[in-house]
């Protein structure tokens, strides 16, 4: 859009420049329209020559026209070349982005790239997780691409847009718009396309929480409520909160708390907590959860891992990925990760 406006502006400037030169020669030298136009072209193009001998006033006008005309034309030509290169480069980037989008699998779809969306994207980048941003705002789209994100500038509530983002193959979808209605429609559309999808919805009030859950959101977050809770924790227990933030949210994003489910194919079956912690040095098993949901906090080292249980483990991301590789993970109809029994 900006390039089109530039082209129109340049055409208008050139028209004014040539019209002024033509009219100037007609008034000063009393030449015909064609002779004046021809002399203007010769002067601006620096080709030299005179249609008829020039008067002193005509020569002075020619000097001014040459200085203004040549500089203006060079500026416009430079702008045209730059704009053309930008268009070609933009087209090349879009083609590359489209190719990368088509290959996306097991990724996240992030709907909305405002302040909350940028924070989410930053965390996903730290975890080296593939994701794509959808936002119909030009500023948000430009910010996303500037930050190196895959992005689609369109309406996230439309079926074809979410399908373009490969939501059928996605690991999850996060709606981070400031508008609760928009988040709700995006959740409805995504749930209709992919019933197995894990969906995280942003809400701004309790009514929105209820509507988002009814629409099919797996989890609903109120950023303002979480921010308030965090501020209260910092006021009450600042050392504890700062320690957790340092360990779990450092700049490298290396440490995580992950829940790993044990199914019948897991190589961890029959192993004790001691065996697991010795095999995966640096990992600590913080809890074990049974099939019925009962949890054993800080289990003893001789506790045995059984089918259907889940381990809540703390450790470096690479170590937790190695533990997960020992288990086959599937999802239920609500998008929750469950044991394959």
- Lateral arrangement of strands in the main beta sheet: 3-2-1-4-5-6
Distance between the termini: 56 Å
The quaternary organization reads as single chain
Radius of gyration from the alpha-carbon trace, in angstroms: 32 Å
The amount of beta strand, in percent, is 5-15%
The number of distinct helices, counting runs of at least 4 residues, comes to 12
| CATH C-level label of the largest domain | Alpha Beta
Structural class: alpha/beta
Gross CATH architecture of the largest domain: 3-Layer(aba) Sandwich
Shape: elongated
Mean pLDDT reading: 82
Helical residues, percent: 40-55%
CATH topology of the largest domain: Rossmann fold
Overview of the structural elements:
With 341 residues, this protein is of the alpha/beta class. It has 3 domains: 2-100, Helix Hairpins; 104-221, Rossmann fold; 254-338, Alpha-Beta Plaits (2-Layer Sandwich), CATH 3.30.70.1450. It is built from 12 helices and 12 strands. It has a 6-stranded parallel β-sheet with strand order 3-2-1-4-5-6, sandwiched between helices. A 4-stranded antiparallel β-sheet has the order 7-10-8-9. The protein has a two-stranded antiparallel sheet with strand order 11-12. Helix 7 links the parallel strand 4 and strand 5 (198-202). The longest helix is centred in the N-terminal third of the chain and has 47 residues, at 56-102. The two termini are 56 Å apart. Residues 329-341 have low confidence and may be disordered.
């Amino acid at each position: 859009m900006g390039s089109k406006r530039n082209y129109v502006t340049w055409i208008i400037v050139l028209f004014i420049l040539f019209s002024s030169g033509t009219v100037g020669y007609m008034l000063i030298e009393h030449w015909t329209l064609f002779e004046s136009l021809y002399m203007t072209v010769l002067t601006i193009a620096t080709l030299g020559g005179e249609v008829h001998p020039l008067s002193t006033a005509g020569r002075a006008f020619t000097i001014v026209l040459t200085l203004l005309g040549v500089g203006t034309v060079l500026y416009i030509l430079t702008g045209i070349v730059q704009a053309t290169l930008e268009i070609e480069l933009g087209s090349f980037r879009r083609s590359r982005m489209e190719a990368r989008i088509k290959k996306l699998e097991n990724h996240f779809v992030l709907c909305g790239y405002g302040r909350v969306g940028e924070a989410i994207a930053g965390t996903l980048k730290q975890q080296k997780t593939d994701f794509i941003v959808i936002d119909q705002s030009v500023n948000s789209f430009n910010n996303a691409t500037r930050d190196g994100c895959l992005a689609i500038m369109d309406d996230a509530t439309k079926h074809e847009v979410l399908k373009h983002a490969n939501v059928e193959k996605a690991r999850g979808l996060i709606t981070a718009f400031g508008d609760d209605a928009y988040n709700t429609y995006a959740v409805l559309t995504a749930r209709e396309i992919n019933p197995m999808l894990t969906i995280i919805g942003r809400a701004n009030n309790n009514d929105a929480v209820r509507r988002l859950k009814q629409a099919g959101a797996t989890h609903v977050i109120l950023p303002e409520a979480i921010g308030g809770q965090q501020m209260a924790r910092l006021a009450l227990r600042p050392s504890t909160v700062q320690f957790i933030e340092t360990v779990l949210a450092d700049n490298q994003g290396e440490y995580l708390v992950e829940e790993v489910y044990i199914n019948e194919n897991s190589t961890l079956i029959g192993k004790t907590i001691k065996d697991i912690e010795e095999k995966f040095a640096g990992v600590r098993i913080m809890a074990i959860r049974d099939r019925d949901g009962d949890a054993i906090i800080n289990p003893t080292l001789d506790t045995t891992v059984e089918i259907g249980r889940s381990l809540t483990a703390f450790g470096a991301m690479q170590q937790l990925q190695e533990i997960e590789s020992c288990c086959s993970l599937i999802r239920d109809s609500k998008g929750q990760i469950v044991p394959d029994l």
